[in-house]
Design goal:
CATH topology of the largest domain: Aminopeptidase
CATH class of the largest domain: Alpha Beta
Number of strands: 15
Protein name: GNAT family N-acetyltransferase
Radius of gyration: 22 Å
Strand content: 25-35%
Shape: elongated
Organism: Nonomuraea maheshkhaliensis
Order of helices and strands: HHEEHEHEHEEEEEHHHEEHEHEHEE
Number of helices: 11
CATH superfamily of the largest domain: Gcn5-related N-acetyltransferase (GNAT)
Length: 344
C-alpha cells in the first residue's frame, strides 16, 4: 500500500531544508511507485519510495543530472535522509548514482553517515568552475527594505505595472513575456542538477496569480525587461511549509509587507537602464505603501556571487528606499545538492 498524502506528510514533517523535499506532484508519485526501478521501503503500514528515477522529480533536469553524474541510472533520494540511515547496510550497484538534497547544516555528517551505510560508495559534489568551484546549492535570502520619507533624486520609475487580470486579457503580451523570460536562466544550471529553465505552465502559474505584480519595460512596443514580485508566499509552493509559516509570522510580528522576488529577465539587447527602471518602479510601489518591506529571494551558488549585492544596489539606487539601517541582505538558509556513487 502506498499513499501520496501520507508520503507528503512524512517528507514535510522530517525535512530540515527550506525547500520541499522528494516527489511533489501526485501524478509523478503514482508513476514512480509503478516503475520497477523505484525502491520502496516500509514506513508504518505504508510502502513509500526511497529511491526513484530522477525523471519523476519536479524541478530537476534529468538529462543534465545524468550527464553530471556520468550515470544513466541516476536516482533521487526521495525520502528525508534520516530514513535511509535507518535501513540496513547495503551496496550501491556500480552503474547507479543517488542524488541527495538536504539542508546545508546537515551535509557533512550525512556524507559521512551515508557512505558508511553503503560501503564502497563515495560522496560527490557538483562543482561549478565559474563560481570558484563552489558546489551546487540554493540559498534563500531576506532583506528588510525601508522607505525614505523624501525620495532622494529618484531614478526613473518607467516600468508598466500589470496584474493577472490585465495579462489574461492580453494573451499575446503574455506569450511575449514568456519568450523573454523562458530561456534566460539555462546558463545558470550548466553545473547544477536543478533545471533553471522553468516550464511555461510554471511561469504562467506565477504570472496569472492574483498576488503577482508584473513590471515591464518596452522598446518599440516589445517588452525587453520583466520583473515578477508576489505579495506573500502563496505562489511559492516549492518552499517547505514550516519555512513559509516562519517568514509569514515574522512579517506579521514586525508589521512588514512580505514580498517574494520571483525573477528578473532582460533581452540580451536591452540596456541596463531597463533593469534599473523595473527596480525603481518596484521601489516606488514600496514607497507608496508607506510600510517596511521584507523581500525574500533565492540564488544558486553561482548567482549568489552577485544577486544579493545587486538587490541592495538597485533598491538604494532607486532613491525611494534603502536596506534597513543596521541590517543587510541576509542569507536565511541553504540547501545543498550532491550525490552518492559506487567506487569502481
Amino acid at each position: 500500500m502506498t499513499n501520496f498524502p501520507f508520503y507528503r506528510r512524512l517528507c514535510d514533517r522530517e525535512n530540515t531544508g527550506f525547500r520541499r523535499l522528494g516527489l511533489l506532484a501526485e501524478a509523478q508519485y503514482a508513476a514512480a511507485v509503478q516503475d520497477a526501478r523505484t525502491i520502496l521501503v516500509p514506513v508504518a503500514d505504508q510502502l513509500v519510495p526511497a529511491l526513484c528515477p530522477i525523471e519523476y522529480a519536479t524541478g530537476y533536469d534529468a538529462d543534465r543530472a545524468r550527464e553530471l553524474t556520468a550515470q544513466e541510472n541516476t536516482f533521487l533520494l526521495s525520502l528525508p535522509p534520516a530514513y535511509l540511515q535507518r535501513q540496513r547496510k547495503g551496496t550501491l550497484p556500480t552503474e547507479y548514482a543517488v542524488l541527495v538534497e538536504n539542508d546545508h547544516r546537515d551535509t557533512d555528517h550525512l556524507k559521512k553517515e551515508l557512505t558508511e551505510r553503503f560501503p564502497g560508495a563515495v560522496a560527490c559534489d557538483f562543482p561549478d568552475p565559474r563560481a570558484r568551484g563552489s558546489a551546487a546549492s540554493l540559498i534563500a535570502y531576506s532583506a528588510a527594505l525601508h522607505r525614505d520619507p523624501t525620495p532622494r533624486a529618484p531614478a526613473e520609475a518607467n516600468a508598466t505595472i500589470l496584474d493577472a487580470t490585465s495579462l489574461r486579457a492580453d494573451p499575446h503580451l503574455a506569450e511575449q513575456l514568456w519568450a523573454l523570460y523562458g530561456e534566460r536562466f539555462d546558463w545558470l544550471g550548466r553545473h547544477h542538477p536543478l533545471s533553471m529553465e522553468e516550464s511555461q505552465s510554471t511561469f504562467n502559474a506565477a504570472l496569472f496569480h492574483g498576488d503577482t505584480q508584473t513590471l515591464v519595460t518596452s522598446e518599440q512596443g516589445r517588452p525587453v525587461c520583466i520583473g515578477l514580485f508576489t505579495a506573500g508566499l502563496a505562489v511559492c509552493d516549492w518552499l517547505a511549509p514550516e519555512f513559509r509559516a516562519h517568514l509569514e509570522d515574522q512579517a506579521v510580528t514586525a508589521d512588514e509587507n512580505l514580498i517574494y522576488f520571483y525573477g528578473l529577465a532582460s533581452s540580451t539587447k536591452a540596456s541596463a537602464t531597463h533593469t534599473e527602471g523595473v527596480m525603481a518602479t518596484f521601489a516606488q510601489t514600496l514607497w507608496r505603501a508607506e510600510k517596511p518591506c521584507r523581500l525574500i529571494f533565492e540564488t544558486t551558488n553561482l548567482s549568489n556571487r552577485y544577486i544579493p549585492r545587486l538587490v541592495g544596489k538597485w533598491v538604494h539606487g532607486s532613491g525611494y528606499g534603502t536596506i534597513a539601517p543596521g541590517t543587510s541582505v541576509e542569507a536565511l538558509a541553504q540547501v545543498d545538492f550532491w550525490y552518492l556513487k559506487a567506487t569502481p
